[in-house]
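Progress report, Aim 2. The chain analyzed during this reporting quarter is listed below.
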Amino acid sequence: MKRTTACLIVHPRSGRNLARVPEVVSVLAAAGWTTDVVVKESKGQTMELAGRAAEAGYDFVIAYGGDGTMNHVINGVLAFAGRRETAVGMIPGGTANVWATEVGIATDPVRAARTLVESVVRPVDVGHVGVESLTFGGGATATALDRETVLAPGARRYFLLMAGLGVDAALMGRTPSGLKHKLGIAAVALTALRQLPTLRTYPVGIRSGDTGSLVWEGRALQLVVGNTRLYGGVARMTPDALLDSGELDLSVITARSRFSALGQVLALVLRGRPAHAHAVASRGPRFRVTVPASVGLQLDGSAVNLSKYLTAPARVTLERAGDPALVSVEYVFDAVPAALRIAIPADYDGSLFREGAAGTSPADPR
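Predicted structure tokens for the chain:
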């Protein structure tokens, strides 16, 4: 029988994850897996390592880190989609570990490794984000640049959990990684307290599908496009989302005043849900969202820079525009059905799937 091959990609996390690697590899070896270990050494390297592993033909590419590491691995694997059906697994070793909480993977790496070798492989949807257009002050649209933006290489375009525009992206981008490693989710709460005076609502327009039907427009504090249900590990911002529906769930948190906005920031960070906001919810395979270029974007809990989605000429043009708040960006969020094969614990109750808990054994990941 062919042995299962795996590439374990490790986020060192100040050495804490590295110290447990031998135990994880021992569990996988006892199950008959042949595992190669690679360690992230520089920012942005994880996606490249995952892409190389997928191209090399490993049965599994395993993310040992947090949700951000998992997101990079997924993007690297999907860059080689169609060449071979590589599956993705996770050993939790991050700050929030939302995916692990969502499907019941233990945060202890040895227990997680045991769960992985007994898991099932299932096809799941992922979300995809791209930049459709840039509109500058005075209504001038960068038409020529629009066609080029989709060709920009190296951007993380896929998400497993959720994408966010607004407060969460700002906080993730401003929280020092060292502080997150030391304090965990409390580091984000501290950053929120420090940044409260600078946080604002922003104008947003949302249209659905290819027809462009208006869903909502107004001022928002936070917008979440969910492929799963948990947000920040505790709240259910998109409580009815499914991983095999072919659709994304959208939730918008609005605020009537600056005072209300500040209160809801605290509620989001400390309790994981808005205190008393008016909320907008929608579901569909595609959403077009227009926001100022100054509004931050996060994918699966880590901030993403808009410039990553633009070609060099588009970046230069955006920089020359001066104030990014005067430039509008149209993002397109698409559901990509059954794009990813991922390891799910065998005892998971299947609540994120229409078809329940059935799956394919990882002993034969094909």
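The longest strand covers residues 328-344. The two ends are 13 Å apart (CA to CA). These observations will guide the mutagenesis work planned for the next reporting period.
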